[in-house]
Amino acid sequence: MSSTVSDQELKSRHRAMWASGDYPQMVTTFLLPLGPRLVDACGIGAGDRVLDVASGTGNAAIPAARKGADVTASDLTPELLDAGRAVAETDGLQLTWVPADAEHLPFADDQFDVVMSSIGVMFAPHHQAAADELVRVCRTGGTIGLLSWTPEGMIGDLFATMKPFAPPPPAGVSSPPLWGSEIHLDELFGDRVTFGRRERATLEITAFARAHGYGEHFKAFYGPTIAARNNAEKNGRADEFDAALEAFCDKWNRGTHERARFEKEYLLSIGTKS
Question: Which residues does the UniProt record annotate as the domain Methyltransferase (predicted)?
Answer without folding.
Answer: 50-142
